[in-house]
């Protein structure tokens, strides 16, 4: 009898524990944001969220207002939608909202990389040294060289270089930016042909991984896809091995510095390979898709294309192809191109949609700009989705879904930086790079890479859509929240090398 009682007691405790785990008993406490657990135990709203995060969050904001907590796969996420209240979340000097904790788990799962203490800080200091300011000058030159090699190189050998060529615009842009970015950062050998072939092969595998990526992060892959992801991970670890790096000539200072740090901290070579895979992903996963959207907007908006070609002619003088059909830009021209800057900013406003996540480290109060206060629970996650709350806010950006190439230009042609919400000047008026401690440290390189690519394409090529009436394709809904979005399908275009002047 006593034994039965004991067994029943254990069963009861286990059941209650399990139900707690499922989040079934969680109730909204005083001062906490509205809580929406969804109707499915544990999963909560995960299915709707993963299907289309943008639409889901729009509905939640309509239902609950600017702050709400939702259950997603057993975890609780508090979304803050008022950009005037972002400041304390992003500044957070005391690390009470922790980015690293969240990132560590993700990179272990996706890249197999087990974070070394201090490497988040190290990545940012390596980037401050080599991806910004003076440190970026050399890399910009290398990037221009690589872009010329990747785009103009194959053409220069083709007898029909000035005939029309047709391709998918997304494929063309992603392929070009990936190969140029990879060769510039991970180095080249003396054999250019071989380098291009290797970069092409890597890109083909990268695309396969990229397609599976959103569902991999959400653990939604089928058994065959799991196997495929494992195979791709191993392949990348091999193709990007630190040993292989040593055999190359021009490994960028950025990568060399970071690998040196890992070696000095006793990180095993196999783990360095995984680090390289992570770095390949963060450095190449966004820029190609962003260049696609930028060129597509230019092709759909002739007034924007005209403005950029005029600016390019002014800034670059007559851009010529020299005998080797490479590019003779001065990279410094990138500092005098406000119209191109505005096109890039507008493209990223419309098509870059990252989620910023911070793990709540200890119960704490969130103070909103309105003066309201909300209690945050230890272990939950605070989430920002600036695409919806900033980029698409009609008060900050009137007619927010329209592409306006000069949205970020003042009437005198200088860069526009003053945007307002509720009569207040808003600091975060676009956030394609994230913000705070996880802000993209590659943003200056990414921008110059994108600008060089666009300049090169519009000055050296005639470009047109195969069907000029084709609409801008919608965003693939699976990509919301993962940085630069992808289109739901590719768009055919034609390009032809302009004859040398
Ligand atoms: C259009 C191109 C790009 C976009 C839109 C972009 C966007 C972002 C965003 C939103 C984050 C923060 C993610 C978060 O908060 O979790 C991030 C992180 C990062 N990005 Fe970029 N990125 C781009 C290109 C690049 C390039 C070219 C590099 C390097 C060469 C780079 C290096 C990194 C690194 C190392 C991180 C991790 C930072 C950390 O852990 O704190 N990114 N990027």
Automatic annotation (TrEMBL):
What is the annotated localization of this protein? Endoplasmic reticulum membrane
Q: Which residues bind substrate per the record?
A: 109, 286
Q: Which Gene3D superfamilies match?
A: Cytochrome P450
For membrane topology, the record states: Single-pass membrane protein
Q: What is a GO molecular function of this protein? A: heme binding
Keywords recorded for this protein, A-Z: Endoplasmic reticulum, Heme, Iron, Lipid biosynthesis, Lipid metabolism, Membrane, Metal-binding, Transmembrane, Transmembrane helix
InterPro entries (alphabetical): Cyt_P450, Cyt_P450_CYP7A1-type, Cyt_P450_E_grp-IV, Cyt_P450_sf
Name a single GO cellular component: endoplasmic reticulum membrane
Which spans are transmembrane here?
6-25
Reply yes or no: does the keyword Transmembrane apply.
Answer: yes
Q: So which cofactors does this thing need? A: heme
Q: Name one GO biological process term.
A: lipid metabolic process
Identify the main location: endoplasmic reticulum
- Sites where the protein binds heme: 440
Of which family is this protein a member? Belongs to the cytochrome P450 family.
Q: Write down what this protein is called.
A: 5-beta-cholestane-3-alpha,7-alpha-diol 12-alpha-hydroxylase
